[in-house]
Design brief:
By secondary structure, the protein is mainly alpha-helical. The protein has five helices and two strands; from the N terminus they run αααααββ. The protein has helices at about 1-35, 50-70, 75-105, 110-140, 150-170, and strands spanning about 175-180, 200. It has a two-stranded antiparallel sheet. The longest helix is centred in the first third of the chain and has 35 residues, at about 1-35. It is elongated and about 70 Å long. The N and C termini lie far apart (about 55 Å).
């Protein structure tokens, strides 16, 4: 009996520590948002508004990235393929992960169904938050994108990683999001292929 009570106490203590760690991280995000003006929700720090801000940040970096790649004589078609492929791969992998999560929380109906759906949503949201925090905890690996031409071997992997990471976070949103490829206007500029907006993506695509 004493051993069982001790195990219960240990489990509760572990949960309290995890909850405190989560609250500390959210508090850190909120403090950062006050300084930078970025939108952070206590209920979901990686909500649609935050995802849009992160995508806008990528678009703000795009002119420097583009100039760097152009100065290194990189073919724009290969860069376009990299960006679209990484977003597509992220969407596919997160769709597979969500299907696995759905299988775990299959319910036979009744009152348990609502609980199962709640746990399912929370699990997906926690996966999204974990991916978000893992990159932030690792620190920024953004190459210097100044006026001089940095090595494209550094810039291309950075661009691919950013697109894949952001694509994962977008795919785990409810509803899933993606760059608005279909409504991006055609341009004479071969480097103008990063859509201005993000849009809802179909779960079945």
């Amino acid at each position: 009996m004493d051993e069982e009570l001790q195990r219960t106490r240990s489990a509760l203590q572990e949960k309290d520590e995890k909850l405190k760690s989560f609250k500390d991280r959210v508090a850190g995000d909120v403090a950062l948002s006050i300084k930078t003006g970025k939108t952070v929700s206590l209920n979901n720090p990686v909500n649609k508004s935050r995802l849009k801000e992160m995508y806008d940040t990528l678009r703000c970096d795009w002119p420097k990235i583009k100039n760097n790649l152009k100065s290194n004589h990189i073919n724009p078609d290969s860069v376009k393929e990299l960006i679209q492929t990484k977003f597509r791969e992220a969407k596919t992998e997160m769709k597979d992960r969500k299907m696995l999560i759905n299988k775990v929380f299959v319910s036979n109906g009744g009152a348990a169904t609502q609980k199962a759906e709640q746990y399912q949503r929370l699990t997906i949201q926690n996966l999204q938050l974990t991916l978000y925090n893992e990159k932030n905890d690792a620190g920024s690996k953004k190459p210097f994108l100044g006026n001089k031409a940095e090595n494209a071997q550094d810039v291309m992997p950075y661009l691919g990683t950013e697109c894949y990471w952001l694509g994962c976070l977008m795919a785990l949103n409810s509803p899933p999001l993606q760059p608005d490829w279909e409504n991006h206007p055609q341009s004479m500029d071969k480097w103008d292929f990063l859509p201005q907006h993000i849009t809802a993506a179909s779960e079945n695509e």
